[in-house]
Amino acid sequence: xxxxxxxxxxxxxxxxxxxxxxxxxxxxxxxxxxxxxxxxxxxxxxxxxxxxxxxxxxxxxxxxxxxxxxxxxxxxxxxxxxxxxxxxxxxxxxxxxxxxxxxxxxxxxxxxxxxxxxxxxxxxxxxxxxxxxxxxxxxxxxxxxxxxxxxxxxxxxxxxxxxxxxxxxxxxxx
Length: 174
Ligand SMILES: Cc1cc2nc3c(=O)[nH]c(=O)nc-3n(C[C@H](O)[C@H](O)[C@H](O)COP(=O)(O)O)c2cc1C
Hints:
By secondary structure, this protein is of the alpha/beta class. The protein has helices spanning 20-29, 49-56, 86-94, 100-111, 123-126, 129-140, 166-170, and strands spanning 6-11, 33-38, 78-84, 115-119, 144-145.
């Protein structure tokens, strides 16, 4: 047990998830205790799950617990979704809690804790009206979004840096 505030990090199935350890390190340096949720697809090779479990000292939560089992994590003091996919943002906004990750997000908004999102969505998908509506709806619920990030390589083959630490800054923004 610890007195540190507890941060939920929700990881979705985008390519940049491979670097999620950077976010965990930054959060721990800012004195957060971290517990990771991952979508079932994200668990399918998008990041090094064993390394994340070692880093956080806790199992990753991806499946619903069995009835009667205790909640493995304490309630969150804040939530970060990084990377956030097109799929998860749309399901979250629509209230479709068909994975533990999205169910946790749906519940978090009702808890009134700060929630920060680092989207990683290709421009062609971000142009879909459902996505635009989802982002607007979630913003209206108080969810804080970082600027769009498309995840695609820029001209010359370089990918813009994914601003992991920005998620932690957003938690404290007004
Ligand atoms: C290698 C790879 C990279 C992907 N990158 C992205 C991405 O950056 N953003 C996104 O929205 N979907 C991306 N996808 C598609 C998602 O994985 C897919 O929509 C999935 O259903 C998302 O599930 P989740 O939202 O439950 O994590 C990628 C898929 C693959 C195979």
